[in-house]
Structures are given as structure tokens and as C-alpha cells.
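TL;DR need C-alpha cells for one chain.
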Amino acid sequence: MAHGTKPMFVSGERYGMATVSDGSWRQRGAGPLVAVAGAFILAQLLLVPPSMGLGWDEVVYVSQVGTEAPAAFFSAPRARGVSLLVWPVASWSSSTALLRVYLAVLSGLGLYLALRAWRGLFPPRVLAGAGALFATLWVTLFYGPQAMPNLWVAYGALFCVGCTLRAHADRFDGRALWGVLAGAAVMAWMRPTDAVWVTLPLLALAAAVRHRRLGGALAAGLVAGGAEWVIEAFVSHGGLRERLNQASRIQGDLGWNLAVDDQLRSLVGTTLCRPCDGEMPDPAVYAWWFVLPLLAAYALAVAVWSGRTTRTLVPLACAATAAFPYLFLIGYAAPRFLLPAYALLAVPVADALLHSVTRPNGRWRPAVAAVLAVGLTGHLAVQYTVLDRTVDRTTAKRRAWTHSAAELHRLGVRPPCLLTGHEAIPLAYYTGCASGATHGHNANTTRADILRTARSIPVGALSAPGRKPPRYARDWEPHRLDRLEVRIAPTPVAGGPA
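>> reply
TL;DR here they are.
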């Protein structure tokens, strides 16, 4: 037999996609993906208010190309991909709502394209299910309309892996090779180190099957996406090795650090868990996290039994390498770090779920389907609850920055101006000022430069309530802001000494 002793898994209704023509797939399979992507866009706009202000990291990325404030300090780990992504809107408009809508629509399109790369590898309903599973995670919905890199690394990974599997199946599929290059470039464009981790299994596959064109496409994509980051390393950071060392120090000196428990704590909606020393959330919040590897193992077992191991094993391997540094090499956690792993797991997991609720002839297993429906309903309820609380908490914090910025304007701190100290980067953006730091990960100025600047423009030194202000600002006039204290340098005298 052409397909061995188990043809029903490969050539039957369930997994006959490998023999379906590309044109037929477009006719029968694009609709569900379009529906999932459209629902994802709508859910973002409804559940994550476009009016929610920019966060700390967003401020850094947007300020590089925006008109609202001078560019914030760009530290070693960051890459310019997000800044270029938001440039079409941020370069001419200061509207956060417009930027959020733009990113929500773009993220929906990205989800569609990333899943479309898997056509012919899995049935359309598996891909649509994968998109629904990934898009309904609170962390996916929360970061969809935000100017952050991790979701775009996830899309690039999903697209790159899908195209790699297509190129592996058909060595003469030129479009798949271009897709491999594009997916790798997007990942490297957003976060070069993440791109390397994701592509390790793909490079190993290309070497194992001696597919030079595939290996070349992967390498070309990594070079194309990461070239700017490497060039900037030599221009601004003393070389590539020094930039990597700086990035490691900023991220807490990368090394063996068991961060699995940190990730569990962050699932309650803590967008940055550093230090991550809070209590564990209710098990209902993280139960899905432990179900994922079980479903992944089941998906692999089904794939091995049905003779289609590669198309399931490869995304699982890439998910593992994508998650590894954030589970074992970093001393803190953020839920968004694992978005690439979740995206890569989504397809095999959706395949496993579909297999569990259908018989080989395509008929439903009612009892299993009912149990699964109850479980997914509970899962969605937990995801929505965490998302709602996270949005409320985040919105309140960013609204406080808006209030503080208005108060600083009232106190005479208006552009051009400079803010230093605690939370200087986000608050400076909201105020329209430049930001400066004399120490820490974002150090970009000196005490002498700050005092010199204070002679010509308004300067404020921020500190947390109860904390001592920097020495150079202890004689400056103190004021209380929302959750902050500011000391403002004496008003420069017109015509005075420079």
C-alpha cells in the first residue's frame, strides 16, 4: 500500500490535505481562517480599549519614530523592528487610539498569513482551531494591539515553520523557500536572539536532509532581519560580543535560572514579574499551562502512528527551543515571552483535540466532545477574567502617567524639557520631554550634563514616594504627583549664563 498499513490517517477524510491542490485549498479552507482573524481583530478592539495609553516598552519603540517626544534611550537587547512596524502611523500622528486600531488590524492579518502558510499540512478546520486557541489566550489579545515585538516573533515563527515543512515536502517549492526567508527575517527583525532559538531545529532539519536551499533560506532570513542589529552593535555598543554582554546584564546575567515558577506567577496578569516573588495564583489560572504539554505529547503520538511525524515534531521542537531561554536562562518572567511557543504549539494541539473528538470515519464522539466543550468554556472564562483585570490595572497605571504629565505642565515643565529618575522614560514621553538616567540599564547622561541642561530648559527629577532624590536635585523645589514625587530645577533666567 502506498501509505503503509494505516491509510485512514493519511488519505482519508481527516488528513487528506496532503493531496489537495493549492487552488482547492483556497476555495475550501480560507474562509474559516478569515473568520478567525476577523474575530481576533474585533475581540481586541472590544476587550482592549484603543484609548489605553502606551506602556514603558512601547514608549521606547514608538518614540524612535514618533512626534510626541524625543527618542527614549534604546538599550542593547532591543531591536528596531517594532519601531519600523509602527512608523506608518506614529511618524505623523500622536493618536494612541489610531495606533492601537492599526496594530489590531495588522495583527489579525498577521494571524491569517501565519496560519495560511500551513495549508496542505493540516486540514483547514485544524488550522482554524489553532488560530482560535492562540487568539483567545489573554496574553495574545492583550498584546495584539500593542507596539511590542513578541507577537510578531510568534507570527514569524509560525510562518517560517509552516513554509519549512512545505519546502521539506517539496524541494522545488520556490514560494515556500521565500516564505522561510521572510519568516526568519521577521523574527530577526523583531528579536534576533529569539529568531536564533526558534530556527535551531529548522537548521538541524535542513542539515539532516541535506536541503541546502532550505538552509540557505533560513540563514539569509536571519541575516536580512538581523543585519541592522549587528551593524548597530558595532556602531553604538562596541561590537557584537559587547552588545550581547550588555543585553545579558540588562536581563539579569543570562545563565541557568529556573523560571518556570516565575512564568506561572505571571499568568495571573503580571505583565512583568521582576522580581517574581509573589504568591502562586489559583490553580484554575494556570491549569491550561500543564494541559498543553500533555496535548502536545498526544499530538506527537497520533502523528507517529499516522506516519506524519515530521509536520508535528518540527513545530513542537521549535516551540521547545523558543521557550527554553525564558524558562531556564532568565531570572524573571513576562507572559509575552512565551507567545512564540504558544503559537507553535497551537497547530499540533488543535490537531490533537480534533483527533480526540472524531472517529476515523469523521463522525463525532459526543461524550468526548461534551467534556472538551466544558473544558474549553472554563478555559475561555479564565482567560477573559485575567484579561479584564489586566486591562483595568494597566489602564489605571497609564492614566496616572497622563495625570502626572498634566500636573508637570501646570508646574511649568513643558517641551523642551528633561525628566530623570524613577519612571522617567514613560512619564517623559507623556509630558513631551526627553528622558535621562545617570545609572542603571538606561544610563545615557551624567550629573554634569543634567545640571548644564537645567540652566536652559525645565528639568525635573522623579522619585518614588519616600525615596531620597538624587543629590544634584535635593535643593530643587519638591512637588507631589500621582504615586511619584518630583523636584523641579529653578526656572532658567532669560538671558542668564548658559
